[in-house]
Amino acid sequence: MAEDDLVAGSRLLRLDPADNVLVATGAVGPGPAGLHGGGTLRLLDAVTLGHKVAARDISAGEKILKYGVPIGSAVCNIAAGSHVHLHNMKSDYTPTHALAETAKGHPDA
Amino acid sequence: MLDGFLRSDGRKGIRNHLAVVYLVECAHFVASEIVLPYRDLGAQVIGFPGCYPNEYAQRMLERLCTHPNVGAVLLVSLGCESFNRFRLEKTVAATGRPVETIVIQRSGGTRAAIAQGRDWLAARLPELAAARRVPMALSELVVGTVCGGSDGTSGITGNPAAGIAFDRLVAAGARCIFEETGELIGCERIMAARATTPELAAELTASVEKAAAYYATLGYGSFAAGNAEGGLSTIEEKSMGAYAKSGSSPISGLLKPGDIPPKTGLYLLDVVPDGEVRFGFPNISDNAEIVEMMACGAHLTFFVTARGSVVGSALAPVIKICANPDTYARMAGDMDVNAGRILSGTPLEEVGAEIFDLAIAVARGRKTASEALGHAEFILTYKSFEPIGPACLPA
């Protein structure tokens, strides 16, 4: 698939220039994925609608930025293109409650 | 622009419901049976399940029974509960609304109480149906907004679209209320910067700090498993999405449940109890928030959902805005607005305008999806509040 096709069917959204995560606007990855507004990112994981991926390498302890503001902290090093979720970030306020059976999101959702 | 049912306090309702109110869980079944044949004729069940007294619950039911969308009230008491039915009946009677109390223990039990209640409804409902509407200005309309079953799409589509509709409503003179201070954790500073006075900004910040401490004690944030399934990882991420539904108008005041917004503008509703942690979680499910919006006079509520809520509400219509396009495709019959199409290129402003126009149509009598399906959920639990401070309302 040519890079232009990827961009035309873009599935990753950057909400703020400061953000270090992008939001999936549909099921996407693994592999190269287009960004709305241009550019591509090679995804290491499959993610579903509404989930986040690292726009660049993020170090353990670094703030996760979405909407241009911190939404929690990385609990380990996160490679660019990885799914960013409960397994590698945490709240700076109250712990997140989730059901293990559904927390990763359904690949077929 | 609108029309409504004029009440003795000058407020106008966009619906003319008959509320059948159980005053303890022991009277709930009888209240539901009374309403059953009249469900499609405007009779609805609300109530309070507890047997122990609670000033908050008393005030909430007083506000709800005198809500502008309510035209008549039937109280259903078992007889021995602690709820002050005398005070509630007196409050409703003082507004001129028809009101009656059935005490099951005096009526002679289940069958007799149901028969007595149905007779009263059969006499009252035709009167309500015959009531005439009078002209109503947009400035007399109170609109609330909540979100429930949020996911990673909520903050991109449904909530910002609801925010645009809120901005238009405020600009047109309506009174708008947003809520759940527990879902504003992490955005208290950017929110406080929108307050019309520094004193109000301090109150807004304090209300979110109170929520953070309250939920920390309880051990859970206002965060459900489905939020994580849909891509939300933390309460502060959920908060940023939820905050978007407030739009961008200046914030004119801070209300607590039962406070009526005194003039045009945008208000935050502080839903987290004051004082030490008692009685459990502040709002145990989404309808608790809608009930508190109604107690503040909300005529209708925007409900932004992404995982797919099906609820409506007793007394006040709920406009369901679906943030997630996949959910909309599965559950279109429960939704009023498909905000998920923003992800495929529809401008946010177009969906915001659709929500605004729908609010006007619903205020004029158009049924929402949940009203057409017969949804009339209601929940009220124990809480405790101090009155709002002097800086909380606009001068």
Automatic annotation (TrEMBL), chain A:
Name of the protein in question: SAF domain-containing protein
Any one Gene Ontology molecular-function term assigned to this protein's record: lyase activity
Gene Ontology annotations of biological process type: D-galacturonate catabolic process
Residue intervals of the SAF domain: 19-90
Organism: Paracoccus isoporae
InterPro entries: SAF (IPR013974), SAF_UxaA/GarD (IPR044144), UxaA_altronate/galactarate_dh (IPR052172)
Keywords noted in UniProt: Lyase
Signal sequence interval, chain numbering: none
UniProtKB/TrEMBL annotation, chain B:
Lineage: Bacteria, Pseudomonadati, Pseudomonadota, Alphaproteobacteria, Rhodobacterales
InterPro entries on file: GD_AH_C, GD_AH_second, UxaA_altronate/galactarate_dh
Domain D-galactarate/Altronate dehydratase C-terminal as annotated: residue spans: 138-383
MF (Gene Ontology): hydrolase activity; lyase activity
Source organism superkingdom: Bacteria
UniProt family annotation: Belongs to the UxaA family.
Domain D-galactarate/Altronate dehydratase second: 4-127
GO biological process: D-galacturonate catabolic process
Pfam family, any one: GD_AH_second
Record keywords: Hydrolase, Lyase
Protein's UniProt name: Altronate hydrolase
Organism of origin: Paracoccus isoporae
